[in-house]
Design brief:
mainly alpha; transmembrane; membrane; 55% helix; BCALP; transmembrane helix; 5 helices
Length: 87
């Protein structure tokens, strides 16, 4: 379970508010995970725990899934709010 200390913080990195940066964010996270899995070769249990956590976060549409954006989340409407973005 030592390798989970490098995988679990990836789930806590927030998605950018600007919708134009979502693709760049998802590509960065995908390449980071792919390079981590190829370089460090985590144990099977750690990889399964991480994939289960990623699946549950993306399935619940919690708003922090970097693979895709759920239609039910309020992030696109909040991204245009001047009080949040500061424009």
């Amino acid at each position: 379970m030592y390798c989970l200390q490098w995988l679990l913080p990836v789930l806590l990195i927030p998605k950018p508010l600007n919708p134009a940066l979502w693709f760049n964010h998802s590509m960065f996270m995908g390449f980071y995970l792919l390079s981590f899995l190829l370089e460090r070769k985590p144990c099977t249990i750690c990889a399964l725990v991480f994939l289960a956590a990623l699946f549950l976060i993306c399935y619940s549409c919690w708003g922090n899934c970097f693979l895709y954006h759920c239609q039910d989340a309020a992030l696109p409407h909040a991204a245009h709010d001047p009080a949040i973005v500061g424009t």
